[in-house]
Amino acid sequence: MKYDFDEIIPRKGTNCVKHDGLKANFGADDILPMWVADMDFRSPDFVMKAIRERCEHEVLGYAVPGKSYWETICDWMQRHYKINASREELHFIPGIVAGISFAIQALTQPGDSILILTPVYPPFVNLPQNSGRRLVCSPLKEKDDHFCIDFADLEKKAQRCKIMILSNPHNPIGTVWSKGELQMIADICQRNGMILISDEIHADLTLGNSPLPHTSFSTIGEAAKACSITFIAPSKTFNIAGLGSSVCYIPNEELRKRYFAYLETYEVALGNIFAYVGAEAAFKEGEEWLNQMKEYLQGNVDFLLSYCKEYLPRLRVMAPEASYLAWLDFSNYNMGHDEVKQTLIKQAKVALNDGRTFSPNPYDPLTECRFRLNIGCPRQTLEEALRRIASVFEPSEK
After folding, report:
1. Rounded to whole angstroms, what are the CA distances from 87 to 68, 91, 173, 250?
2. What is the pLDDT of residues 372-396, one digit of tens each?
3. How far apart are alpha carbons 368 and 353 in whole angstroms?
4. Number of Cβ atoms within 10 Å of the Cβ of 212
5. Are the CB atoms for 133 and 83 separated by under 8 Å?
6. Is the entire prediction scored with pTM above 0.90?
7. What's the order of all strands across the beta sheet hosting 316-318?
8. How far is CA 249 from the centre of its chain?
């Protein structure tokens, strides 16, 4: 079956954050939403079919994930991540951000230090601080329009940390970490007795331009397996984030018991009927849809780079190797960060994620004049967003 990713799906008025949250977050609702990390593509037909079929049974009571759900999850993990997980090593989680929050509460105490690589997905910044933990940041380094890890800095800062939270692949720039980099992280964790939380929500979206395949952290070796909690989800992969469905994998028995005990004690890891039904359908039937969607995303990456080269030559673009999030650097336009932000909103009328929210330091040089662009949309939407930006920042070009 050939899927149509050029189709425009009206979303305004459906209570979606991306469109209906514009006024609250940007002060205007007549701007083009290119921010929240969900896609504007139609959710897959096989997921919608499974949900509709479940609705034919008109009792929507409490639900549990069935045997076929877990078999499907294990099969997907084995085929896509080379993880041979047993049912006992897995637990349903109602969203990865929630899962990370639970891990912080279960495995650390107020005042403990938690390590992150910055710039990074904002909840990694917010969750430790909001829970009374001490946030420790190891800044990434820019090299050839990509980010890389400063391992000397990471080693030094890991010495006083209980947990490291890793975005693998990395959000906001879609970097696919190499096996060598992950091995070095695992070694640092082992030397310092540090737990590693690996958020692999973007794992299935590794694109054709990536020089590397995705490597799941736990597959690196025994040291990685011993210290890690891995989170996966169908939410970004199949555009079903609203179902609140994810899974954690913990191969280390002692660590697993500590975390699972917290989940059970506080009863915080329960799902709903559609979280189970939707995820199972996605992982069971989604291979062809995913392949076509990734091909389309790669086309969007190629279009973004070619358009900017011609019409936005001063804009630096960090194109994703995985997922649909591009990191844009407006620092060549001789504007301050706030001026760029207001120009995007008020003149270009485009909503992008503010780069400053990806670091606790509001003047972090890696986030100054940086903004995140969501390219998970029909190409004509992406073209319109870029046209609007070019008309304001490079009016002589376009």
Report:
1. 11, 8, 33, 11
2. 999 999 999 999 999 999 999 998 7
3. 12
4. 15
5. no
6. yes
7. 316-318, 325-329, 370-374, 353-354
8. 17
